[in-house]
Structure formats: C-alpha cells, structure tokens
Amino acid sequence: DFEGSFTVSSLTLGAALLRDRLDPVALIPYEGYRASASYEYAGNALLGELDFSKAQVRSQWHHTLYKTDDQRRIILGLKGDGGWVENNGRLQEVPIFERFFVGGPHSLRGFDYRGIGPKDRAVSIGGQVFTTATTEISAPLYADVLRLSAFVDFGNLSSRLSTWDMKEMRG
Q1: Triad 69, 61, 140: Cα angle to 5°
Q2: Reduced to 3 states, what is the DSSP secondary structure of residue 123?
Q3: Geometric angle at alpha carbon 129, from 126 and 132, rounded to 5°
Q4: Which of 74, 82, 130, 142 gives the lowest tally of CB atoms within 10 Å of its CB?
Q5: 108 vs 110: CA distance, rounded Å
Q6: One digit per residue, pLDDT tens: the chain, 171 residues?
Q7: Predicted TM-score of the model (pTM)
Q8: Cα gap 133→107, rounded to integer Å
Q9: C-alpha dist (Å) from residue 109 to 29, 112, 129
Q10: How far apart are CA 48 and CA 132, in angstroms?
C-alpha cells in the first residue's frame, strides 16, 4: 500500500512521427498518420523513492474515403495504443497512480470510466499492461461543425504482463 507522499524522479525518452493533413475549419485529420513511443524510468538512481519502468506506444491513421464537391469528407480512422509498466528494485507492486486505466470516452467508449480491468471490492485498481484499438468512420452531418461517427473500440487491461490474454479483449 502506498500512503503518504513520495518523491518520484523520472527520466522520459520519447519519439514521434507525424504526417497528416487537418481540415482547416473542423481541425480534424483527414489524411496521414501519427505515431509515438515513450519510455520512462523512475528510480533511486535519480534520487526518487519509487522504482519503475513504463513504456507506451500510440498510432493513428486517417484516410479520406470520399470527398464531396464542397470539400466535405467521409473519413476512415484507425487507432491503436499500448502500454506496460513494471516495478524495479525494491517495490512489491507498481503504485496505483502509475498504473494504466481503461474505459470511458477516451479509450473504450461504451464502458464506464476506468471500468475495464482489475478491481478490488468493485473499485478499479488499474493494471500494468493495456492495449486498445479503434476503427471509426465519420461523415459530415451539418456543415463543418457536426459529424456522425460509427466506431468499434476494443481493448484489454491486465494486472501483469504474464496474465495479459488476447481472449480477454473487450469491446
């Protein structure tokens, strides 16, 4: 259990690749891709009190399926995210505030906020490994301010890498 205050000193390295085109009015991507990866190390070597390693990857791809004469687009979007965090050294477990949480409008729509993954007495406690993916198609509904979307989200959150199972995907 982690109670009280802790000093977390970490070093994060990251890289991103971005090549996309944005609609100048709606500011949504309609063509291209985005990809990023990061690795964070926290530990005693950096004068912190907690030891852990965390890695995350994210990718997005967008493609215009159809463009009308007035430049409105039907867009296909694919997105994938994943992450892993592991305790280093003396920690028994990864602190809850460094774990991943899945569910809700920004990861798995249709599920409660933080509603996927390990729980303790019906309270989400997060996990050490997650994957999420989305396929979405969107079309203009009203001018450039309102779009209609159809999507499929799916993902998984597991307490440890050793217990992550593709069969546990929810969506």
Answers
A1: 35
A2: strand
A3: 95
A4: 142
A5: 6
A6: 567 777 888 999 999 999 999 887 778 899 999 999 999 999 878 888 888 999 999 999 999 999 988 888 999 999 999 999 999 877 778 888 999 999 999 889 988 888 888 888 989 999 999 999 999 999 999 877 889 999 999 999 998 877 777 777 778
A7: 0.85
A8: 8
A9: 20, 8, 19
A10: 31
- For residue 66, what are its two tokens? 């159809």
Tokens encoding 112: 């409660």
- Sequence length of the chain is 171
Q: Can you give the pLDDT at residue 11? A: 94
Give all strands of the β-sheet with 52-67 in edge-to-edge order: 10-22, 29-42, 52-67, 73-87, 129-142, 146-158
> Distance between CA atoms of 132 and 135, rounded to whole angstroms?
11
Amino acid sitting at position 32: G
Residue 71 corresponds to which tokens in the numbers above?
Answer: 């430049």
DSSP 163: G
Structure tokens at 165: 């199972």
